[in-house]
Write the structure tokens for this entry.
Amino acid sequence: MPISLPIKPALSDVDVLLLRQVAGGGLHPAISRATGIDEDGVGAAIITLLTKIGTTRRFHAAALGASWGLVRREDAHVRNPTGKTLPPRHMEILAGLVAGEDAVATAKRLGLTGNTVRTYTQTILTTLGVRSREQAAAVAVLDDLVPLRALGDGWPDMKLSEVPQPAGAH
């Protein structure tokens, strides 16, 4: 039985560029410079993009973009990864980020406090060498740290590198 991923939404070139900027943890001034969107309109453009993608969380959008091949590893701007492996509890929290969970939902799911989840999240960011949850979520998918099923319903229980590429794809 062939593996299929949920269909990616139709996005314009500007939408993809905006998604890459979001996945890189860009702030509004940098996003404005990179995309040509007026700085005052960046927030609204991101909300529109999230709606097109079908999520309300920037970090979930970054993970989805990575899974669809729209966000590349260089877009995530990994700086100083420690090379350390994340412990299982940290991996569960990282999977929650990929799924688009906020700290409260992750805490409830894992029986932790919100503060504990936030502290673990900071450790995850440091370990991965990123500054934002958006970057961490993209890296988690691109580096096969979490299975695609973490993205939500309809995603296969495999890592991105295990998804067969269509003939002629690079």
About this structure: The mean pLDDT is 93. The longest helix spans residues 114-128. Residues 37 and 67 are 25 Å apart (CA to CA).
